[in-house]
Specification:
Layout lengths: L1 H12 L1 H5 L11 H17 L5 H24 L1 H4 L5 H19 L10 H20 L11 H32 L2
């Protein structure tokens, strides 16, 4: 229920940016609410014993990426985001985005190995989204001073999380086989 509430709040948070953008880029704007929506769907499927390994993997990657990225941006532009009139809201946003990371980690024990092609496809989609964010400015509204560095952070998170999970799941599968 918390993830669904966070998803609704997230779409509300991006409401103005979405409506002021061309409709063809709308899907690239609300990263956090999409991450929490997919995570909630993962949990619902697990609850009904209809688990999707692929959805769990995508949820994990998006939750961790968004959690780290948003927290970093809030700290990079601390003076901008944590003004007295926005301090409580931004503190709430920071805490909830930091919590996305341990929530995502809860999915790790359920995940199984997937094909390199699956991970390559997810990487291409993430990199395309990163390009949309930093070439077509679909990233969340923020000061422009460190946009290039933040774009590099987003790309490095996309690549490193894919590689991390690919090798972790490959090793997890190999280690399970060694115990038999």
């Amino acid at each position: 229920m918390i993830c669904i509430a966070g998803t609704i709040f997230g779409f509300y948070y991006y409401y103005e940016q979405i409506l002021s953008s061309p409709f063809w880029v709308w899907v690239f704007i609300p990263d956090s609410p999409v991450a929490t929506l997919l995570y909630a769907l993962s949990l619902i499927l697990i609850l009904f014993r209809r688990e999707s390994n692929k959805l769990n993997i995508v949820s994990f990657i998006l939750m961790v990426k968004t959690g780290i990225w948003t927290s970093a941006v809030l700290f990079i532009y601390f003076d901008y985001y944590f003004r007295p009139e926005t301090f409580i809201l931004r503190s709430f946003i920071l805490i909830t985005h930091l919590l996305m990371i341990p929530l995502a980690i809860l999915l790790l024990p359920l995940m199984k190995k997937e094909t390199p092609c699956f991970f390559l496809t997810i990487l291409m989609l993430l990199l395309f989204s990163d390009i949309m964010d930093y070439v077509f400015d679909t990233h969340p509204w923020m000061p422009e001073k460190y946009t290039f560095q933040i774009g590099c952070l987003a790309i490095s998170l996309s690549v490193s999380l894919i590689l991390f999970l690919f090798f972790l799941l490959a090793r997890k599968t190999r280690d399970c086989l060694l115990h038999f």
